[in-house]
Design goal:
129 residues, alpha+beta, 2 domains, 3-stranded antiparallel sheet, two-stranded antiparallel ribbon, 4 helices, 7 strands, globular
Length: 129
Amino acid sequence: MGLAAELQKIYDSEINVRISWLWDGGIDVRLGDDMNGYLAEENVRSMSEILPWLQEAIAHFYPHSAYAASLDAEVKIRATTRLFKPPSIGATAICPHCGAANASMMDELIAYICRHCGKAVEADPPKVQ
């Protein structure tokens, strides 16, 4: 299946991704969005590397999604052991008080006020999956 068809299936599963590039800087692929934050990111060198990374990232972070259910067993197995790079900017911070996702647009998140419940939260540094 082609990249366009797979991206449509990811979109239909309501999974947010971002793909961007600057010429000669590789292709940045991120799982997540600006509003809720990002779970992982990768810089790949070619278009052919986008889909395999997205499939493994989705199988890892959204294993119960409709999209992950449609993936081959070998992709799901690779996803369980693959290490994903946490995003350098825009990581997802989960409020320990209410469970709401809060996006961080800083390089390093030390503390924040939850946009949902309004409580102060001290943030732990991101962990590599």
